[in-house]
Amino acid sequence: MATTFERRRLGSLHPVHAILLGFPFPLFLGALLSDLAYASSYEIQWTNFASWLIAGALLVGAFLLLWALVDLLRARSGAKGRPMLYFILILVMWALGFVDALVHAMDAWEKMPAAVILSVIVTVLALAAAWIGYSSYRSGEVR
Q1: Start and end of every DUF2231 domain (predicted)?
Q2: pLDDT 10s per residue in the chain (143 long)?
């Protein structure tokens, strides 16, 4: 008796969705690196760079959040686990990114410990969202 192992792809990523998903992680990572550069040099321009990078990540992240919501609403009732996790990650990433933008709007000396911590958290969340978004989950069954 022969057994076959069948692999099937669960969902695929639309090309526009893939492009949108490619922006938040590098932008938040750039903001984190700018915060670390400010922490070591105290050159105020680094905080301006970080603020603009966070603003760009939030702009693209808003469209990504909308796309993830549409994907969640269009998912079949039995397969909502991955889209729900993906949507929640992007929602938390965007919300904490917005808080990070508000912290970056403070005075340069006042924002320093909180800005780096929030930038690290948001960068990790953006990486996790990109990981889940770009990964193609496969399920297999033996017949």
Answers
A1: 14-134
A2: 566 655 544 556 788 989 999 999 999 999 999 999 999 998 999 999 999 999 999 999 999 999 999 988 988 777 778 889 999 999 999 999 999 999 999 987 788 889 999 999 999 999 999 999 988 545 454 55
Q: Quote the tokens at residue 95.
A: 């919300």
For residue 102, the enclosing domain spans 12-134
142 in any annotated domain:
no
Name 142's Cβ contacts closer than 8 Å, sequence gap at least 6: 3, 4, 5
78-83: which pairs have CB atoms within 8 A and are 24 or more residues apart? 79/10, 79/11, 82/10, 82/11, 82/132, 82/137
57 within a domain of the structure (yes/no): yes
Domain annotation covers residue 139: no
Q: What is the spatial distance between Cα 29 and Cα 93, in angstroms, rounded to a whole number?
A: 13
CB 116 within 8 A of CB 3: no
Backbone phi, psi, residue 139, to 5°:
-125, 145
Strands (E), 2-137: 5-9
Give this prediction's pTM: 0.84
